[in-house]
Amino acid sequence: MPQPRYILAIESSCDDTGVAVIRGNEVLSNVIANQSVHAKYGGVVPELASRAHAQNIVPTLTEALNQANITPSDLSAVAYTYGPGLMGSLHVGVAFAKSWAWAHGIPSIPVNHMQAHVLAHFLGPTSNPEFPFICLTVSGGHTQLVKVKSALDMEVLGETRDDAAGEAFDKVAKLMGLPYPGGPVLDRLAREGDSKRFQFSRPRVAGLDMSFSGLKTQIWQFLQQGQQKDPDFVGSNKHDIAASVQAAILGILMEKLQKAVDETGVKEVAIAGGVSANSGLRKLLLSKEEESGWKVHIPPFEFCTDNAAMIAMAGAKLNETGKSFPLDIEPQPRLLLSKG
Ligand code: KG4
Ligand code: ZN
């Protein structure tokens, strides 16, 4: 058996600068420089994100190489995210990765961030999903139901027509005056709340597509009405509001996931993206495993949110094809996942 190769990867699609080194499925380093600069604005400010990437990228790469205890000459390839994401952020990672790889005489490999979220399941020693499997990728920027036929053959079955699920969590949290990113904060509050206390209507969207913007408007109106009657409505009901909002968002996701399983007959189910860290979603999926015979795959937390190890895994799968990639690859903010 040939020794697996060292792959270094750079992720800069949104607000986290990540650099990782993997060999096979072993993660030797997975360094993330989180950008705290956005917290006071309640969302990612693209211009600030690009500047922070430019500042963070060299020290993050140095740290990743040090932790992996290797030098550039040990690397077989440098993988990098070229889309989808924020144009300015992608530009920093793409330009840096291609030039750094070229300067060291190493091939560079462009990676689709959404494909990489799915392939995070192949990192580390946990059991891999078997093909074909259904993957629900839920992050701050995307919400997609994907049929994964092989590592590099993925078919989008449905996706959000407006906001992403993580964006819905973040926007509602902002309306409630909670800090950014709101997803983890709502998750924590929801654990002590009554999810049936407030009801929100489910949007009707055909097929496997989803919508979250109507729910956000509905919750905004609900909060306004509550605050008119009681100025401390949010403060004194925050656990129940969080639990009810979370139940509404997860209700949409679970309905479509169930439909995807029914339509495809595939019961091997995986989740990916930042929202897969949600404890309510994890609980619902595990109960499906017991009640409906699904085989559920939930990645370790560190591989759910944006990270470079998943980009390295996607790079490794592309590297195995033997294909080489040119140096004129441009960032693609709206890159789609190829439809099978
Ligand atoms: O995958 P990710 O790190 O970045 C994107 O590609 O967007 O996902 C970030 C999103 C944010 O919207 C954040 O609020 C959400 O994931 N998130 C959560 C939780 N942890 C992170 N949403 C709900 N519950 C959580 N525990
Ligand atoms: Zn992501």
Unique ligands: 5'-O-[(R)-(carboxyoxy)(hydroxy)phosphoryl]adenosine, zinc ion
Q: Strand count, sense and closure of the main sheet?
A: 5 strands, mixed
**Range of strand content:** 15-25%
In whole angstroms, how far apart are the ends? 30 Å
Structural class: alpha/beta
Choose one word for the global shape: globular
CATH architecture of the largest domain: 2-Layer Sandwich
By CATH's scheme, which homologous superfamily of the largest domain applies? Answer: ATPase, nucleotide binding domain
CATH third-level topology of the largest domain: Nucleotidyltransferase, domain 5
Number of helices: 10
Overall pLDDT metric: 94
Q: Which stretches are low in confidence, meaning pLDDT under 50 for 5 or more residues running?
A: none
Could you estimate the helical fraction of the residues in percent? 40-55%
| Secondary-structure element pattern, one letter each | EEEHEHEHEEEHHHHEHEHH
Radius of gyration: 20 Å
CATH domain class name of the largest domain = Alpha Beta
Strand order of the largest sheet: 3-2-1-4-5
Count of β-strands: 10
What is the domain tally? 2
